[in-house]
Amino acid sequence: xxxxxxxxxxxxxxxxxxxxxxxxxxxxxxxxxxxxxxxxxxxxxxxxxxxxxxxxxxxxxxxxxxxxxxxxxxxxxxxxxxxxxxxxxxxxxxxxxxxxxxxxxxxxxxxxxxxxxxxxxxxxxxxxxxxxxxxxxxxxxxxxxxxxxx
Length: 150
Description:
This protein is an alpha/beta fold. The protein is built from 3 helices and 9 strands. It starts with a strand and ends in an 8-residue tail after the last strand.
């Protein structure tokens, strides 16, 4: 299940806030999450795909350290969290792999960078978890350092 959403990246400032109404880009994502859930009830989106430019917009909604980034890279065209975690463990940069859902902050929405996507496009997807026995490493979910409205 997936749904495509469009936005104008020029409507947002360097802090991820909409220049017209002051809402953060994460709030827009929250609206898309509600729309996704309404369309595919009872399922919720658990993956957000976008290009690196849009991930920077997501990142700007948080108070992060200079060496922190948002979004895992596709590996050979696939989502591969284990490989991304291994790469991250050898990097000077730290990656935020997921954000708390706007509908339930305890539920992650994994952030995936897909460079084949154009600016102003986000795809929300529901991808079922096929490995129910072993959840593996805890993936840090970014929600505690969200910027507040100015």
